[in-house]
Amino acid sequence: MVRADARENRERILEAARDAFAADGSASTNQIAQRAGVGPGTLYRHFPTREALVLAVYQHEVARIVDLVPQLLRDHAPVEALRLWTTELVAAMRAKHGLGHALDPAAQAAVTEQTYDPVIGAITTLLDAGKSDGSIRADADAADFLQLTGALWRAASGPEDRSPRLLALVLDGLRPPPAR
Questions:
Q1: What is the pLDDT of residues 57-106, one digit of tens each?
Q2: Same domain for 105 and 144?
Q3: Are 135 and 147 members of one domain?
Q4: Are residues 101 and 142 in the same domain?
């Protein structure tokens, strides 16, 4: 069993690393330890390599986003829950841009493989809720939705964030066709 202070240190390190990598993908582990208020030894006890830290940050963020789904569906209609969840995913992917630079291609592929199924599962849950209440077309597919929304985090470059407008177009495409 992990002690409470060790869990707190781990969480502080992950939060500090997330913020540091979002600002600068080349942030050092010493900078992250300082930012988290722990010594380098504490950081390395939790994350023996920089790559292990980067992977843990990515996985932690994906788990956080996936875990939002039940609450969103309790508080909102399925299409709105999907919009809010996707907006959160897009914000996290923008922040993760720095993480991509911190990993070699093999590690990037590994983390994508590890996080794909939970993300697809979250999208499937959201889509199924909309299919059940008739607000989302029956043939909506989680993998298609992920692929369509995958470019939204890039839509913020330039003078205007176009991602909300683009997401609205994607969500409009999920509406069931009119009855004939």
A1: 888 889 999 999 999 999 999 999 999 999 998 888 776 655 656 667 77
A2: yes
A3: yes
A4: yes
- Separation CA 128–CA 30 (nearest Å): 45
How far apart, in whole angstroms, are the C-alpha atoms of residue 89 and residue 145? 12
Nearest to 32 by CA among 54, 58, 3: 54
Instruction: Write b or e for each residue in 26-57: b if 16 or more Cβ atoms lie within 10 A of its Cβ, otherwise e.
Output: ebebeebbebbebeeebbeebbeebbebbbbb
Q: Which residues lie closer than 8 Å to 124 by C-beta, 6 or more apart?
A: 142
d(CA 144, CA 136): 14
Does the residue 179 lie in any domain? Answer: no
pTM of the model: 0.82
